[in-house]
Design goal:
The protein has 192 residues and is an alpha+beta fold. It has 2 domains: 3-56, no CATH class; 60-187, 2-Layer Sandwich (Muramoyl-pentapeptide Carboxypeptidase, domain 2). 49% of the residues lie in helices and 17% in strands. It is built from 7 helices and 6 strands. It has helices spanning 3-10, 14-26, 58-74, 78-97, 106-116, 139-144, 146-164, and strands at residues 30-34, 45-49, 121-122, 131-133, 169-178, 181-187. The strands form 2 sheets. Strands 3-4-6-5 form a 4-stranded antiparallel sheet. The protein has a two-stranded antiparallel ribbon with strand order 1-2. The longest helix has 20 residues, at 78-97. The radius of gyration is 19 Å and the shape is elongated.
Length: 192
Amino acid sequence: MGVRELAEAVGLHPNTVRQHLDQLVEAGLAVRDTAPPIGRGRPALRYGAGPGSEEQDSMAYRALAGVFAEQLARSPDGVRVALAAGERWGRSLVLEAMDSAPGTTAIGQLVELLDEAGFAPEAPLTDDEPIQLRHCPFGTLARDQGDVVCGVHLGLMRGALRELGAPFDAISLEPFVKPALCLAHLGGGAGG
């Protein structure tokens, strides 16, 4: 992908993305090549995952996630961008999963997706109770950059519910009500 495509996908300025991509290339996690020339000027640069990048240390991914979350938190519309990114993620998780048993409710399917994503959710016993999330796969980062990380997670739930056509929405995420417990509140009509 090109810098502009990547910047649009993550909601950051192309110059910021370019700096991070340079670091990823230097670390061997990404590769850079030149696109075939089109018209006048220099050919565009393209980036892709580096060979064997899936085998790299998870600390590098944590560091990268931290850098992006910090940058988003500094942006005046960072939480909005985080929500939008989460919604795209949630929609894609639904499209990838699509293997729930027939008759599984939207809440049941959301709980399955959250479980696969590492949140250790507990389904509510009644419709007016929140989903209990007993583990945050981004716990340390969520404590440091909560608005952004929790925004992505709320967006994930909204995107999933909207893709499922649920008649309700994820309306809020209450982080760390206990050291290992967040609450996802559902209700209202789906927002779009």
